[in-house]
Every structure is written in structure tokens, then in C-alpha cells.
Specification:
136 residues, alpha/beta, Rossmann fold, 5-stranded parallel sheet, 6 helices, 5 strands
């Protein structure tokens, strides 16, 4: 299993990395602090989950999300330090984020959300993921 973390704050990156390594022992972590590099890594590394900060130094996390979504259906957890901005949450979800978490967050809740996304991804039949349609 592989997680891509696109986060420019070193403390947050360390917290996420530690939580994933403890709660998901076989995870391989790939990280960057830049959105452009994150997009390239999402394409090249084929991660099982992307953890994406909205506030990156080179571009908006929304733009990263749009570009990742143009080539991948990988589950994306969006992180934001802005609490209670409903418009931002709605925008993130409409652009294709699977989760939206406000910083600071609890590590147990974070891990539970990651595990849920991975379970959902694994339960989705491959044909359905490719076509984007559900079978009846």
C-alpha cells in the first residue's frame, strides 16, 4: 500500500507520517511540499490514497485536486486549516475530494478515515472503477 502526502507544513507531515506508519504498518510513504510535484507523483507512483493540503506554496490545493482527478480516481483526503468554511468544503467535495479534514485533527479519526477510503476502494469492482459506472 502506498500513500502520497502533499503537505508543506513539516509538523503536519511528520504527524501524518507517524500516524500512517503506526496505524498502517505496511504503508509506503511518498511526500512532497509542492503541488506540481504532487501531481507528477500521483501519476507516476499510483498511490492508494492522496493526502492533500489546500495551502501549498506553488499552487492551490484545489488546482492540484482538479489535475489529479483528470487522470486518476485515487481517494483524496483534503486538509485545511480553515475551520467551518462551508463554501470551501462544498467546493472540495464537488471537485472530487473524498474527505475534508480540518487541521488540527486527531490521529485516530484521521486513520479511521484513511482506512474507510481504502476499504471502499478495494470493495469497488475494477470494471466499475474503470468505467465510472455501477453495474446493475
Amino acid at each position: 500500500m502506498k500513500a502520497l502526502i502533499i503537505e508543506d507544513d513539516q509538523k503536519t507531515l511528520e504527524d501524518i507520517s507517524l500516524a500512517l506508519q503506526i496505524g498502517w504498518s505496511k504503508v509506503r510513504l511518498v511526500s512532497t511540499r509542492l503541488g506540481e510535484e504532487g501531481i507528477e507523483l500521483a501519476e507516476k507512483e499510483s498511490p492508494d490514497v492522496v493526502i492533500l493540503d489546500l495551502g501549498l506554496p506553488d499552487m492551490s490545493g484545489f488546482e492540484v485536486l482538479k489535475r489529479v482527478r483528470s487522470c486518476s480516481e485515487v481517494p483524496v483526503i483534503l486538509l485545511s486549516s480553515i475551520r467551518g468554511d462551508e463554501a470551501e468544503i462544498v467546493k472540495a467535495l464537488e471537485l472530487g475530494a473524498n474527505e475534508y479534514i480540518v487541521k488540527p485533527f486527531g490521529q485516530m479519526e484521521f486513520l479511521a478515515r484513511v482506512r474507510r477510503l481504502i476499504r471502499t476502494k478495494e470493495a469497488t469492482p475494477m470494471k466499475q472503477r474503470r468505467s465510472g459506472k455501477t453495474e446493475k
